[in-house]
Structures
1.
Amino acid sequence: MEWHQMVGFHQVARLGSFTRAAGVTFRTQSALTQQVQALEEEFGCPLLERIGKRQLRLTPAGEKLLAFTEKVLAEYGTLVEEIQTLKGVQKGQLTIAAPFTTLYRLLPGFLEAYTRRFPWVEVSLLDRPQKGVVELVKSGEADFGITLESAAPGNLGRVRLAGVETVLLVPRGHPLAGAERVDLRQIAQYPLILPPAGSGYPARRKLETLFEKKKLAYRVAMESSNIELSSVYVEMGFGISFATVVRDLPILQQRKLAFVSLDHYFPPEYMALVHRKDRVLPDYKSAFVDLLLGK
């Protein structure tokens, strides 16, 4: 197995497309096809299988090889950084994935302090929903992800951060605003502002399941993945919304909103910093974790 074959297979497997992999590796699709075929001949078994005209799926052997290439390429990146340090060259890269509100409201202060301390580190930020955050960390495209602790699979390392809770957001003066406890029947009477339907938003799936179990009809007046956008429309009376938040988030306190506890449906949660367990973190990456923890 040659290096260029391993890199080519890794990108095809990661992106699920010869076309996209060709763009990333600056190679032709035919060259990538030949590289993958050469690997299949070497191992004596298929690594990829086509589903329909455009979709690719890894075979069990392909999944084994992808895990291997991820580990080798990660170790190569670490090796490059260590050699640069030996040469006296201060250079590093740090990629962080997180949902929009986390990037917009919770990270700026930490990142400002971090970049002052490590001006030679190239920091990249990726705005993704929770599922996307986890996938980027698992694939090695992101060094760290910030997501709900419950969304982090057991094969990733995690560092617990701030506590969060799932609440119902209603305008001040709303009939539900003063309630200590609300049930789904009460909630279903009002237009709802929910995260987009789809696998990237587990809170939406759980809500739909709860409504279905109670056989309750409900109306979605708006879909939004951005809590700040949702809060604007809640404030104007367009609908009521669900949010998993740090309750003292300043932007929410500034709006005319009331928070109604939903802890009887959604237990208290924590945000967590997730990372791959099989990677040794250089000092400048460990320093970012320490900064988040206030060390």
Note: The chain has a mean pLDDT of 87.
2.
Amino acid sequence: MIYGVTGNTDKDDLWQPVADLVRWFKERSITCRLATPVAEGLAARNLMSAHDANTLATRDVAEATDILLSFGGDGTFLNTAHIVGGRALPILGINIGRLGFLADIEVEQVRQAIEQIEAGRYTIEERMALDVAISSDGTTASEWALNEVVVQRSGTAGLILIEVSVDGATLNTYWADGLIVSTPTGSTAYSLSAGGPIMEPGCGSVLLTPIAAHSLTIRPIVLPDTAVLKVQVRVPELAHVVSVDGHSLVVDRGETSLTIRRAAHTVHLVKTEGSSYYETLRNKLMWGVRKVD
């Protein structure tokens, strides 16, 4: 088994745990590879020799490994998933961020997690993703999302008008700050903050959650993952933003059209023995926790 290591190089908390883990790998004759920015950062901080850094560094860490370790928070995990793309490489998220819902292994537990993997005591969990085709002002782009696609007003612009159809049939017209189209994985992210339901990751569903809709009746809706959604912004004079897993495209003017469907590929997450989605809900989001004075 070859382990790749990548992470958020902007975090000071990254370097020592990764250096310690690399030494631990070496003591146990476990092969690892480091994303080049990580290797260079370790050498620059004198946590690794320049020779070792050059030996372990690889430009495409996802191509050179069997399991990819992502050190950071959930944003880092999403970035790692996009680096992997459709290559079906399993990712283990190690939390050095705040919440760590996708990166659900705490940094203090990483060696125990590796030992479980080496012993074969782990599973691979496949998470659905969304393909999105974006057309705006004569330009087109194709992206995919593990968490969500968001259309929302930009800055202090007024409410935007968003028309949504499902498989060619009109669903709704939203007069709102925006609209979130999320996977079950993304249901605990921005959608949750906007009042959307929590969906177990294995659900074959797509969730539409309006952001501050100017209506007393519009609510989130869950659709099957076979649905093809057409999302159109119908107030061309107002600037708006399209975000895919947190990466934003600002549209200054013009109508925007998005076609969203389930992606052909899935994202593979490593789950160690004993891990539970519901336990993560309780530990990270305090789901059902009742505090008694």
Note: The chain has seven helices and 18 strands.
3.
Amino acid sequence: MDSSLNINNDAKKVFRDCGTCSRTFAHLLNREFGHVKEDEERALNPLAGGIMNLGHQCGMLWGASLAIGAEAYRQHENLDDAIAVAVSATEQIVKSFEKRTNTIHCKEIIGYDLTSIIGMTKFMLKVTLQGMNNSHCFNLAEEWAPEAVEAAKNGLAKKNLGLNQKIICCASEVVRELGGSDEETIMAAGYSGGLGLSGHACGALSAAIWKNMLDWCIMHPTKNPPYYNNKTAKKLLKNFQKVTNGEMQCSKICNQKFKTIKVHSDYIKNGGCRKIVEVLTSD
């Protein structure tokens, strides 16, 4: 499928303008779909660096998945179908990204632990010496952007997933219980099961961070949410880790990697991860 990025790949310029990988890829895909969403894109900033610089799934994936969810909502009147398509299409971009990088984890991609002062210093020094435009993250953004668009469009094109049932997923439930609109709940759907059912760092946590930051962005239309010292995100992470005993991986928290959206939905319907949803949506 043709993409404007195949003709004019401006991913590096967009990255410079947006400032974070997560916001960049939400913007690139939203623009491709013809619906840029300023507040929703800015709210993604804390998910860069693999969720608050923790090194988990690359922010490019969180951003791309959010844009996919928005497009799934526009394409499907039935919300259950929209959720299923958003999750399925997110699975496709995860596979595409992993094919390009051999991993989906920020820490493995950049080779530094951004949670430590030494790691962050070494990373910033390397970027400074290379020049931002020649940095690994900027090069990756330029290389993967057309592939991300293609994977997203292919994933969204799958119309008949054969579910015909009520679909509930962890990330959408968190957004809904935080007062999110139908559109917002679908936007975050792909985060479920550790991002597209891949079993990695919890998508419900990322959904909670994003929704809280979205509310903040709406209240502060000319500002970007705090990146390095985000008190709201830190509180959510702290409360989440209390419930999970410090575990971040979906597959370990749930003792399984969900093979299908139906399996995940049934798990949530039967009370799975209820304590996590509650702690992420409590005042």
Note: DSSP finds 16 helices and no strands in the chain.
4.
Amino acid sequence: MKESMEIALAITAPRRLAALKSFATLDRAALLAFLDDPQLAELLPQGAVATHLYFGSEYCEHLFPNDVDLATALDQAERLGLKFVLPTPIANDGLLARIVTVVTRLPAEAEVVANDWGVAQTMKVQFPRHGVVAGRQLAKMIKDPRMPTPTWNKVYPSNYRAAPYARLLSSFGIRQVELDIPPFATPDVFAVNDLAVTVWAPYAYIAKGRICKIGSLGQKTEEKFAPGRPCHRECLGILEREPDAAVSGLRTYSRGTTMFYRHDAAMFGVLHNAIAQGHVKRLVLSEV
């Protein structure tokens, strides 16, 4: 009997947690209403019910949840019967210490998404009972929406096709990995050496940096576009959409330090088929 696919809702902005309070359960209709994205109906089977709640950011240490927001997210996850997942970004020593403090407060069944080898090592040593999932920043693949043909995917295939990389993940106790759907995706994108696969939809991250363009706009000229400035989380209220689609036809967006693209019809088709064939253990639905 085929195992049912897990379905997660990912939230980054704390203000969106309040919207969860209007739902008694996160079934298919509730998920579509919360995300206000009818196209996601193509991916959600009838009778689908969310199983996990992600809260936090994989891309910026300034968006790591504070105590109040974390408590709210944990309360909502418990009320809705969802397992909690904490996404974590690349971490300096200060953030790593905060992650350790937060993980001690998480329920036993909670998971941590690691995009940093130091976070993965800390979880292995200090919290071996918590599940650790390899985040999308550890999945090395070409996701440049400017690619005109699939040739680059052949030149630089996903690192998950390399057996040594799977062994490296195994050494950290990682049994599940998270992926985006790249341009010109083919079914073999899910060939990850027997690791369980999580796929995000309908947005994929292209690249991230340390410079927050939106956060720099109000700074003095000499302080613009430089790391280390005070963060007021401007990115949570401002989304930049590129005026024209890329060469491939993908629509791209910028939020804070990170660029994203929205899946096109072909990507939806590849993902739909992968779900139907049972290749996707978990589907994570998010806003951009």
Note: The first helix runs from residue 28 to 35.
